[in-house]
Amino acid sequence: MTTTTTPGSGSPAAPDTHTAEARGRVLPFPITGQEIVLIAVIAVLWVVLALATPAFLTGSSIVPLFVATAPVALIGVGMTVVIITGGIDVSVGSIVMVCAVVVAKQLVDSGLSLLPAVLLSVAVGGVLGLVNGVLIAYGRVHAIIITFGTANLFRFLGLQLFGGTTVNGIPDTLDVFGRGDAGRTLGVPHSFLVMLVIAALAWYYLRHTAGGRHLYAIGGDANAARLAGVKVQRRVLLAYVLTGLVTGLAACFVIAQGTATLAPNVGDGMELAAIAAVVIGGTSIMGGRGSVLGTVLGALLVQTVTSGVTQLNWPSQLASLFIGIFILIAVGADLLRQRARRTT
């Protein structure tokens, strides 16, 4: 006899001796209505932009779009897991900054090769995520307070590492994740492919494993999840460590996007872009419901809007306006869904 938990509901389902049938009832359809809407909106935007500026659908435009989407979507994958548990992490921009400056300095000073550079960045991100996780899981303080505090601490650390100047002469070690020919295969950027693989693994974990269902249960009702035997503190800790790890990898993508110079403003605003992608993708900011696929689509929509505004030579502030409208629509749709569930 097995007991399962409905993803997004936060409550255990009734025991059933027919495991296969139970799984069939527990798992929702692989793609939600909001994700279908996002796909349609992105498709319409691409058609409109292609008609308005024919250069939009060329490789010189699409490749940079995918390269820009990759780090935001990757951080968004970790943010999705965190928000599903009912938390949030506003320190990811500062984590990108610390990881990027550490790796950039090692690339310049020690001639670090590709794999050690990536592992170093991921390790630094994991340690900073661990700091967040320990304070949130065991400190019993809301995540936004803790991560707002650590965001400032991490930023201070990053500025000290920069030493008031830029990092210059960065070699092309990470170009495999960049925009040039070395950064793509058959026209598809490697960073985007890596992001898709990690997103697919996260999607499978959340949807098909007990650990993933536990995360939804924690976001739905942490006390009920604890009474049901879920190791709440351990799961929350792991969620923030995961976010730190993928943010460390995203920092490598960010370095590869730029030039041979890294400025102290690296990572600025990435937390807002990631949260926007998650919310637009349909993850409930209240926790207990969310989708990695929706987050990837949300990140692609955000970058499409940004790229479109630039290519149309419109004022850059319009990108923020349009993204804000999408966020409000997504939040409104989530509130309506919650109200509908309460009344049924």
- Give the neighbour order of strands across the main sheet: 1-2
* Inertia-based shape: globular
Helix percent band: 55-70%
The average pLDDT is: 88
Question: SS-based structural class?
Answer: mainly alpha
Assigned CATH class: Mainly Alpha
Task: Report on this structure.
The chain starts with 18 loop residues before the first helix and ends with a helix. Strand 1 and strand 2 (188-189) form a beta hairpin. The protein has helices at 19-26, 33-52, 59-84, 92-110, 114-139, 143-162, 190-208, 210-220, 222-227, 232-257, 270-280, 292-311, 317-343; strands at 184-185, 188-189. It has a two-stranded antiparallel ribbon. Helices cover 69% and strands 1% of the residues. The protein is an all-alpha fold. It has a single domain, classed as ABC transporter involved in vitamin B12 uptake, BtuC (Orthogonal Bundle).
List the helices and strands and how they pair.
Layout (H helix, E strand, L loop, with lengths): L18 H8 L6 H20 L6 H26 L7 H19 L3 H26 L3 H20 L21 E2 L2 E2 H19 L1 H11 L1 H6 L4 H26 L12 H11 L11 H20 L5 H27 L1
Antiparallel strand pairs: 1-2
Helix pairs in contact: 2-12, 3-7, 3-10, 3-11, 3-12, 4-5, 4-6, 4-10, 5-6, 5-10, 7-8, 11-12, 12-13
